[in-house]
Amino acid sequence: MLESISLREIRLALKEPFVASHGVQESRRILLLEVRSRDGLTAWSECVAQETPGYAPETVDSAWDAIRDWLAPLLQGSSVDDPSAVYAQLSTHVRGHAMAKAALEMACWDLEAQRRGTSLASLLGGTQRRVPVGVALGIQDDPQTLARKVKRCLADGYRRIKLKIARGADQKLVAAVREAVGPDVPLAVDANGAYTRGDAAVLRGLDRFGLSMIEQPLHEDDLVGHADLQAELTTPICLDESITGPERVETMIRLGSGRIANIKPGRMGGFQPVLSALERCAAGGVGAWVGGMFESGIGRAYNVALASLPYFSLPGDLSPSGRYWEEDVVSPAWTMSSDGFVEVPLDRIGLGIEVDRDRIEGLIQRAESIRL
Ligand code: MG
Known about the structure:
single chain, alpha/beta, 15 strands, 23% strand, globular
């Protein structure tokens, strides 16, 4: 049973602004949870909702309210020893608010890992000791600047480069990068839903660059449009924003809306919906990888644990702390080997990292504690 849930909002400055089709981001308001159980354990987790609803409907503020007013009360007095049951419990009378639910649900998985004296990765069924890391690069005005950045990422070891694209900022950028890096480097693009069905010709034009995927070209609800587009493209479509739960994966498979799924536990409500989505991916032959949401090192710990599951073979957005933040809130900070892998702390209990409580205290914008 849980004793308390502490909510803290911190602000971390990004090293450099990040531009995608849905806006520019310069810093990150981050909602952290510290969940205490009655048997004396503490789990930290992170809600991946952003400051504005530009990427997903939830925000830091909506998640805060949802957790305090509706979700925390649902866990009052109930056992959370079986974390696979927590998502269903949190969905009793509460629709949506997946990111708020995920922050609580995933903390319960960490608590259970600690209770069993095992790593979160092992508890989830993870076996991979190191997982490959990909990186996403924001939209640049100048193709040559982008090509230079890509080369720097390749020199750092990243196993896959993903370029953000938008209408009018696509073919030229991709052409410049492909020419600069040669035909063999794994390149992908991500449109964050910026195109419409009428843009099929532009998207077909990307086929010649040998991309490993085109991520979310159309609106998140347009699975039929994605299916029509996929039928015209050689390049696999990867769905990201569309993948809000296991049922969406099934729809994607039935319709043929794509061949790859970007798995983000925050967007799906936690690990249990993800595990059930992965079963469907496996049955339907859909590839999967773990996406990122500019998490701090706490959110990253959950994503690394998830990425250690044997089903994940494609590189995840698991950049080391130093890529985005001057200083992370965990120690050790997440690092990447020179050949582009992150080590999974399979042999350490729980998340496998220490949360830097002092640093967090110094970054707090607001805090609230809920006793259960
Ligand atoms: Mg994406």
